[in-house]
């Protein structure tokens, strides 16, 4: 294989946008186009060394971590073929203030899903490969255990996902629900259709890989149900006209080897986050045959609510063949329903605390406190008490917060124990049980200050302990 000639760095911000910089009009190679950070290797450099050097020279940032090798491809300029390897990286530095390299770049910006055609400005050769590379990075998501890549066909930069689709649909469990497998040609067409869907709808399905091993896990994500179809009309009649504006459906299909570990829920949460945070959707549905109780259970864990039944082609109870009018269960989730549930949690916390003299304060913190929560965000509560051990030795009191399961515990510093619970809807609530020393003001603990300044709303504070803490953390904490 040809040696690596050049490297590229795909730097993303918190909104998953990719950093771009415009090459000056005086550059001999591709003047005036928008480009990613990167350049050629110097003699004796490894690709990783060149990557770190180019990032610092062109932006002033320092590479913290190479998250993923996104692409390894070749391109030609003036008769010379170059091999390029592009990496998704995290960096240290102020992302709002890149330092452009004088004489090489004159503007910078962050490209999201609506900005991809910027990569074609002044691109006189019409080459879309850099645009497709950036689109891939913009659309990719990571969960705790999965890397989710938007499904593509081969496009000159990426090899495409047809072989993975063929393997997924060859899995007996998946083939059972989709009534068959895919031939190589069918898988290739399916991959191309998925890529076209991403371009057309700004949403689509991902291929899911294990983040640690790289092993294939399945596929899932979003799609837009075509308007005017019987399925779309039947669903809109159940869930209301707001859904019909976006027509977003959430789905998943995992290999047998990946099932039973909560990965479908993890994938589903990523899809909901993309729908509500990136696409700004109003609602999302999921539907499955009523005999598919495993998928229904995932929908419930995602906090989706049963909306009713439609009829479509699929599997029906007690019948060995696919039926034209099988019963399907439809589930829906929207912002208003989730916000109402969070307020219910808040009200329950206030009522619970009011009857307990040993509870010295309760506050909601984090994204829900500062009105920046995503639909998939959990609720973070801080409970100040004179006797934290009494609440850590028994779980009975968690019923007041709607707990149906305790899904985790963790100690944070000397005072705080996190108890993470799940409600019947799938919403997770993190209750941080802490001694009143957490709210000490002389001095304020640095960890406490970070929590308070990140967003805090007082729910129960009979002795003004939390109010004094907020004031001690400065005016920026008075949220």
Automatic annotation (TrEMBL):
MF terms (GO), sorted A to Z: acyltransferase activity, transferring groups other than amino-acyl groups; hydrolase activity; nucleotidyltransferase activity
In the record, which residues are listed under signal peptide?
none
Keyword Disulfide bond part of the UniProt annotation? no
Q: Which InterPro entries match?
A: Acyl_CoA_acyltransferase, GNAT_dom, N-acetyltransferase, NT_sf, Nudix_hydrolase, NUDIX_hydrolase-like_dom_sf, NUDIX_hydrolase_CS, NUDIX_hydrolase_dom
* Keyword Hydrolase carried by entry: yes
User: Where is each N-acetyltransferase domain found?
Assistant: 146-326
The highest taxon in the source lineage is: Bacteria
List UniProt keywords, sorted A-Z: Hydrolase, Transferase
Instruction: Identify the Pfam families for this entry.
Output: Acetyltransf_3, NTP_transf_2, NUDIX
Question: Taking every annotated instance into account, which residue ranges of this chain make up the domain Nudix hydrolase?
Answer: 1-134
- PANTHER family annotated for this entry? GNAT FAMILY, PUTATIVE (AFU_ORTHOLOGUE AFUA_3G00765)-RELATED-RELATED, N-ACETYLTRANSFERASE DOMAIN-CONTAINING PROTEIN
Family indicated by similarity: Belongs to the Nudix hydrolase family.
Question: What is this protein's record name?
Answer: RimJ/RimL family protein N-acetyltransferase/8-oxo-dGTP pyrophosphatase MutT (NUDIX family)
Organism in which the protein naturally occurs: Kribbella shirazensis
